Amino acid sequence: MSKRFRIPGRLATRLHELGVGASAVLQSAGLAPGLLDQPRIVVTTEELFALWRGVGVNSPNPAIGLELGTETKAEHFDPIALAALSTASFGEAMEQMARYKQLSCPEEIIHEMDDSEWSIQFRWLLADSVEPAVLTDLCFAWVLCIARHGTGTRISPLRLELARQPTHAKIFERHFGCPIVFGAVRNAIIFRSSDAALPFVTSNAELLAMLAPQFDEELKQHKGEESFPERVRAAIQRKLAGRRPKMQEIARELHISSRTLQRRLQDAGYSFQQVLEEARHQLARHYLNNSLLELNETAYLLGYEDSNSFVRAFRMWEGTPPAHWRGAQREKVLPDGRPARAAVTS
């Protein structure tokens, strides 16, 4: 997993087209004035969040994230999006993007599907603060853009779930063509399960055959850059869903024996329990920052037997109960994603 995000080189141009000055955004975000002029722009999660909060602060347009996440010209799609559009269906496209997201950033695309619904969420693995509203809007608009461009239809989700309080509902309803549920326990875009099978008119096996090997090779390089404890932690997080994965299960996931897993962790100065707790800690911060899940629900998702066990663990990690920590994080930003301190001067 790369620990930095790549920023599209066209961002400054896109901001200008939408009436937002890049210099003002960078100043508000506390970032280097020439950041967006670099040939290769990479930022940490903290810097990424600051950048998108800066966009929100400096744009009077409540749909700025939706517009930045929507692309109409095929030549402006990045290689990962082009590879996704070259697949056979909407479901395959999202699986492709989820896989290759690992190439560019500490971010995951999470899919959950049952008989009737297919939910898609974005998880920021190294986030220490609340996800900016503009970034949430951009991500879901981007998913819809891929779906509509690929299928060649005006496909709409069943609904959009946003953890924020109600704001500009009509704008979102018009853009997504579906009901918006504000004050939800998570940020998610929900399609019909059957939508995953929708064929892509943009399917291009030859282009995919050209792009996929390049991404696979880069993915191998990134995996080689990861430390072994990081690989174990990522495998644990994939299995943490209402239960605590065992060492044997993670070893099978990594195609090694339990003894080898234990030995390699010890060589790196870790135990399996330490990596498990790091995985839980990282996910706990994500759930508390980016959802309205109750503590008992969060405890369940992290594989704890009860909420008291989770509260004790969180106190050890952060020195404060999870409810207090969540409150302190949310006081740092306004409901629209702007830093609270910006409200004083705006």
Automatic annotation (TrEMBL):
Q: Which Pfam families match?
A: Arabinose_bd (PF12625), HTH_18 (PF12833)
Instruction: Report which superkingdom the organism of origin falls in.
Output: Bacteria
Residues of the HTH araC/xylS-type domain: 230-328
Entry keyword Transcription: yes
- Indicate the transmembrane segments per the record: none
Q: Which InterPro entries match?
A: AraC-type_N (IPR032687), Homeodomain-like_sf (IPR009057), HTH_AraC (IPR018060)
Annotated Gene3D superfamilies = Homeodomain-like
Keyword set, alphabetical order: DNA-binding, Transcription, Transcription regulation
Q: Which residues form a coiled coil?
A: none
This entry's Gene Ontology molecular function terms read: DNA-binding transcription factor activity; transcription cis-regulatory region binding
The record's GO CC annotations read: cytosol
PANTHER family, per this entry? HTH-TYPE TRANSCRIPTIONAL REGULATOR GADX, HTH-TYPE TRANSCRIPTIONAL REGULATOR VQSM
Write down what this protein is called: AraC-like DNA-binding protein
This chain's source organism reads Tunturiibacter empetritectus
